[in-house]
Backbone:
C-alpha cells in the first residue's frame, strides 16, 4: 500500500504555498512534515484528505485517484485529524454514533475509541461532555481516538499532541508507531522520534523533497 503525491500545487490568492510537490508514503511509514507557520502544512493535509482542491498534481492511494475510490470512501481510508476539533454539536459519543450511520463506515471493522483514549489519559467522562467544554488536549485525544478506531489506511495528523503532556504524547507516539501516517509537527525532537522520513515545506514556492 502506498500514498503517492505527484506534482501537487496549492495557491491562495496570488501566493504559492507549494508547487511540484511529490512524495510517496509506504505502508507503515511516518512522513514527518515541518515548516514555518503559514507555509501550507494544514493546506497540504486538507488536500491529501480531499477536503480542498489544489491547482495541479495528483494524489493516489494504491494507484487509484480519489474519484476512483469515491470521495466518501477516500475520506474513510485517508483520515484527517485537525489540530483543533471543529465546532461540533453534542459530545464525542455523538460523533461516534453518527459515524456508524455513514455508508462508508458500516461494513468496516472498528474498535471502541475509548480503548485508545484511555491509554492516553482521556477521562471516560469526556465522551459524554460537550465538545465546547473539553480542553484542547481532551479534544485532540477524542478526535484522534475516533479516527484511529476506524482503522484508516492513512492518518493525516496536524499537530496531534500539541496540547498534551509528555506522558500522553509518548503513549500516542507508541500507538501510532506501526501506522501509515503523515504527521505535521513543530517539534523537531518529535519529528526525529516518529518520522521514518521527513519533509520540509518553505514559505516560498520552492519545496524540499522528502528524505
Residues:
Amino acid at each position: 500500500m502506498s500514498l503517492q503525491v505527484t506534482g501537487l500545487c496549492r495557491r491562495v490568492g496570488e501566493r504559492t504555498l507549494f508547487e511540484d510537490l511529490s512524495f510517496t508514503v509506504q505502508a507503515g511509514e511516518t512522513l514527518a512534515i515541518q515548516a514555518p507557520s503559514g507555509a501550507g502544512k494544514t493546506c497540504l493535509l486538507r488536500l491529501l484528505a480531499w477536503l480542498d482542491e489544489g491547482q495541479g498534481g495528483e494524489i493516489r492511494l494504491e494507484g487509484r485517484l480519489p474519484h476512483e475510490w469515491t470521495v466518501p470512501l477516500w475520506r474513510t481510508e485517508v483520515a484527517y485529524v485537525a489540530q483543533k476539533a471543529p465546532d461540533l454539536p453534542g459530545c464525542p459519543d455523538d460523533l461516534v454514533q453518527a459515524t456508524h450511520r455513514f455508508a462508508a463506515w458500516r461494513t468496516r471493522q472498528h474498535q471502541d475509541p475509548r480503548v485508545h483514549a484511555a491509554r492516553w489519559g482521556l477521562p471516560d467522562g469526556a465522551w459524554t461532555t460537550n465538545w465546547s467544554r473539553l480542553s484542547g488536549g481532551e479534544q485532540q485525544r477524542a478526535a484522534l481516538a475516533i479516527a484511529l478506531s476506524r482503522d484508516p489506511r492513512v492518518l493525516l495528523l496536524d499537530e496531534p499532541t500539541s496540547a498534551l503532556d509528555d506522558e500522553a504524547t509518548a503513549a500516542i507516539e507508541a500507538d501510532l508507531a506501526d501506522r501509515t501516517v503523515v504527521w505535521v509537527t513543530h517539534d523537531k525532537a518529535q519529528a526525529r522520534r516518529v518520522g521514518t522520513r521527513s519533509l520540509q515545506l518553505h514559505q516560498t514556492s520552492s519545496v524540499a523533497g522528502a528524505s
Q: What stands out?
A: Residues 205-209 have pLDDT under 50 and may be disordered.
